[in-house]
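Encode chain A's predicted structure.
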Amino acid sequence: MTLPLMFQFKSPHDQPTSWSKFTVAGLAALWMATVSNVSLWQQLWATPEVGGWRGVGFMVLFGVAIAAVLFAALSLLAWPWLFKFITAVLLVTAACSSYFMLSYGIVIDAHMLVNVMETDVREAQDLLSWRLVLVVLGLGVSPALWVVTRQTRHKPWLQSVWRNLLVGSAGLAVALLAALLVFQDLSSTMRNHNQLRYLINPLNSVYATTRVVMNAMPHKQLPLQLVGKDAQLGASYNVASKPLLMVLVLGETGRAANWQLGGYERETNPELTLLKQRGELQYYSDVTSCGTSTAASLPCMFSAMGKAAFDNAGAPAEDVLDVLQHAGLAVLWVDNQSGCKGACARVPTVDTRDSNHPELCRDGECLDMVMLSDLDQHIANLPTEQRQRGVVVVLHQMGSHGPAYYKRSPPSQKSFLPECTSNALQSCDRQAIVNAYDNTILYTDYFLAQTIAWLKARSNASDTALWYVSDHGESLGDNGLYLHGLPYSFAPREQKHVPQITWLSQGFQARVGMDLQCLSTQQPLAWSHDNLFHSMLGLADVHTTDYQPEMDITAPCRANLK
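Encoded structure for chain A:
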């Protein structure tokens, strides 16, 4: 008597069902093209070119093309020792990318990947959340485990070669056909909204990784290009009775739109506003950054090349800090962030992030005021001969680094409440996000005011000055975007418009013959990070053939250039 099928029990020795590797590849490709590309489909549907049934048809065929490309790639890599590993990695990568694209409105390109690679453990912790874990488990790990646990059939090596090539070619043919059927809509949409190409998941990550790897591969080692080797100190050093002491505060993620000095309705700069009302401070309202991330902006803004040339530079080159040293000045970089991205490679550096200051440091992170706590001692450790001529200090802020904005300000500086206390910004009300961010600007205002007070206290011994500029801006949910790092060509103004101020002591003004009334006329003009190299040399009165006075913001207002 034969039992019904439902009551039959399989022997433990029965072989599990085997799957065609191409079936597994097809299902994985379909999953990534649909579920892992929600951000792409959302933004694509919001474009004016996509609407009605024609738009639906375009999106379907575009999805088919993406799935077919992924299927073709997996088919070509369908070898017993490689297929499951590659497929699992792509599924998990796609899930991670999907989370960050959906949560923060970012895109995945080579610059963003470099930012991720250069993020230290402390910064990475700010991006971790239970929402991220659940999304990666659901969209990435679960399907990856399904793939890994399938028993797939593989033909002998020679048969696998032509089968993989045949099936992979068929996948590419389907992708090409689908793209051709909607070519007019596809080309128009991608031309008008080129950010969409960075949302095609996980092809965006594969492309970005390839770019980064290619750039990192050993090439012919180009020598460091020397800059300003002819640098000399100007005439002011012969007549000045005191050495120079200039502080450059390098802001982090300072968005000009939220600065009271720039017209923001909230009082985010009460102390700096008071200094400006007294005529002690200049605020430059139209300054554009060199990049939309720290890794892109820092080396560029210190360079003599300017953004256009820097983006296409083939060889590394010295920057303004090197030139100041060539001239004989002492230079010091103090970092409360994740490094200088090469800008301080040849100057003395101090890292304050590991300080154990009882009031300013907690949970492995220090507030920016820690940079002033031992600054006198750090300066005293610089070479005596250079220090007697003058000192240039760079203070690299933690500033408004997100997404955990609430960590960047102490309780005493939290005037705007309630604030978002989560690093999953999408889970917070937008006003709470803005409150948390504005508190960081309020703390930066306090830090800059205290730095100016520190300089004033040393004005009897040195001619002191301060320059502040942020490395890039930030998106706070504007048009669904968060954080920063979008490709420069289509990044919103919020990620590129940065605040900049100068404060010059009376002794410093006399030293360089500065006309503050003239300098006030420079404040509303359009400037950029390209002006930093030349303006720093101009203020420091350092002469070199690499200096361009027309790029120096202060040049028209200094007596030694009139």
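The chain has a mean pLDDT of 90.
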